[in-house]
Design a protein that fits this description.
heterodimer; A: 184 residues; 6-stranded antiparallel sheet; 6 strands; B: alpha/beta; Transcription Regulator spoIIAA; 34% strand
Chain lengths: 184, 116
């Protein structure tokens, strides 16, 4: 099942990265997620040639933000007791495509797919105001703002693919495609 | 009121003289619960009888979506306190700020947003 703008034709190219986190009692802590996001953002600033200092800063921020948000979600919402998440990054000209994977139970997938359809059909600004109002009223532990901030503030296109696995879980692919520099 | 919050990568403190809460470093904490001390500080300052409050974000280099949620919720909650002028001072050279602070005008039309 596909939801949103999921590009099934993304291919690995020279310089692209694919990281898989194997399980076997390995526990990734929160700090490591942001350190990984920072490392990948520094790596990718090297692939954007001839940019000004201000654009360099923007690439660092943009890549770090999208990796951090999607990777945080992969860890937070992984149903498998083992980690088993992966990150794939492709760049083409000014754009970055990030795909993370994690595993969800079928019940959680139903809820998640409904949440996504609501998000992707909404007016982004109105959705944001509604979400903040809800966060104040319900005092929720998660902000639910990761995706909407990517759409509104980073001009990201989001897509999702769901694949049933033999172990009864569903593998979820989350794709974000966005410019590394907004002004080009 | 605890007027200072320090973490490994960040420092937040309240300057009583200028009614400003300054943020320094990088905030990428795990969920709303982790931002509770900062939410609490913002709320306590807003309830301390002042007529204006300044969020000084010039030195805040990075903020994750849970942190953005903390600021947005605070700004929206200040609609109920129209006697307090909310000001935000950001840095136009810090990319997350150029992208994220303007949205605050959706939550509080009277907010003053300035950049260095």
């Amino acid at each position: 099942m596909l939801v949103g703008d999921f590009d099934t034709n993304v291919k690995m190219d020279a310089g692209d990265i694919y990281l898989k986190f194997y399980s076997d009692n390995f526990t990734l802590n929160w700090e490591q997620a942001s350190k990984l996001a920072d490392y990948l953002s520094h790596y990718y600033t090297q692939s954007v040639l001839s940019c000004t200092e201000s654009q360099h800063k923007e690439v660092l921020n943009n890549v770090s933000y999208v990796v951090n948000e999607l990777f945080e979600n992969s860890i937070k919402f992984n149903s498998a007791s083992d980690l088993d998440v992966s990150i794939q990054i492709n760049t083409q000209e000014n754009n970055i495509t990030l795909i993370t994977t994690n595993n969800l139970s079928k019940e959680k997938v139903t809820k998640f797919a409904a949440f996504l359809k609501n998000l992707l059909a909404a007016d982004p600004e109105a959705y944001l105001v509604e979400k903040i109002t809800e966060n104040i009223e319900k005092d929720t532990s998660g902000s639910g703002l990761g995706y909407i901030t990517l759409i509104l503030n980073y001009h990201a296109k989001l897509g999702f693919k769901f694949e049933e696995q033999d172990n009864g879980l569903v593998k979820v692919f989350t794709m974000a495609k966005m410019p590394m520099i907004s002004d080009i | 009121m605890n007027t200072e919050i320090k973490g490994e990568h960040y420092h937040v403190w309240y300057d009583e003289e200028n009614h400003s809460i300054a943020f320094n470093g990088s905030l990428r904490l795990n969920g709303s619960n982790s931002y509770e001390p900062i939410s609490k500080l913002l709320k306590e300052v807003s309830e301390s009888g002042i007529d204006s409050i300044l969020l000084d974000l010039r030195e805040l280099e990075f903020l994750n979506s849970s942190g953005i949620n903390t600021f947005y919720k605070f700004v929206m909650s200040m609609k109920a306190k129209p006697n307090i002028q909310v000001k935000v001072l950001g840095n136009s050279e810090t990319p997350w700020q150029k992208k994220s602070l303007e949205n605050m005008k959706c939550f509080l039309k009277t907010i003053e947003l300035d950049y260095i």
